[in-house]
Amino acid sequence: MKQISSRFSMAVHILSMITLNPIYSTGDRIARSINSNPVVIRRIMAQLKKAGYIETKPGVAGASLLVSPERLTLLDIFQAVESVEGNQLFNFHKNTDPNCSVGMNIESILLPKLSNAQKVMEHELASVTLAQIVEQIRTEENVK
Length: 144
Known about the structure:
This protein has six helices and two strands, in the order H-H-H-E-E-H-H-H. The chain is mostly helical. A two-stranded antiparallel sheet has the order 1-2. A hairpin with a 6-residue loop joins strand 1 and strand 2 (about 65). Helix 4 crosses helix 5.
């Protein structure tokens, strides 16, 4: 099964760092934490900025969160960084054989099931806030 890109988990990582320590959340520091190329991090941060979730200023270290972590859900973050064409997570192959019983019916049979799977995923992501993630990070940090 093809995985969703890592942009989503990286975006949650980035936003968690900014929430916990905005002054030290530079692109280079975040890239080291994620173990990724700073260019990749800057691209994701640009998507988060475009969505209105963060603010960065040229020549000023760090980034600021523009949305309360209690109001920012994982679904918001997912939608900011993952491109889902037509708001459909699952795509269908085109030009199936209309003379084949499978080709003529597969999309209409699968579509409701896949739409339901997407709704369940979106519901779960919408039920978790950035604040909850950050609180779990703080808890884990105190345990270690």
